[in-house]
Amino acid sequence: ALLYRGNEQAVQAVQALEMGDYTLAICLFKRALRELNLTLARLSQPDVAETPLAIRYREYAMPRLFDLREIWLRVMNECRSTGAEE
Q1: Range of lowest pLDDT (22-26, 51-55, 60-64, 82-86)
Q2: Cβ–Cβ under 8 Å, residues 55 and 19
Q3: Which of 7, 42, 28, 6 is nearest to 75 (CA)?
């Protein structure tokens, strides 16, 4: 559910970018980052280490989630610099 909500926020942020509303895009990416950070926290909890399937998912998902987080942060930074120029 956390990833789904984060995805919805990110999709809306991309739509805001397409419309040129950088402030709204930053706001929506921040909301998406909150969901992503909650997902990362959930994957780090001790009960995740109890099942082999959860361990495999965590090993697969963690690098991709951090990459996604890095992309969103870079886009937010670009939005801030573009918004400051206008």
Answers
A1: 82-86
A2: no
A3: 28
Residue 68 tokens read as 């996604």
- Supply the mean pLDDT for the chain: 90
Report how far apart, in Å, the C-alpha atoms of 74 and of each of 17, 48, 71, 81, 83 are.
Answer: 13, 30, 5, 11, 14
Q: Which residues, 6 or more positions from 51, have their beta carbon under 8 angstroms from its beta carbon?
A: none
Q: Are 59 and 43 in contact (CB under 8 A)?
A: no
The model carries a pTM of 0.83
| 84 pLDDT more than 70 | no
Identify the CA nearest to 6 among candidates 51, 39, 53: 39
Angle between helix 2-19 and helix 52-85 axes, rounded to 10 deg: 20
Beta carbons within 10 angstroms of residue 30's beta carbon: 13
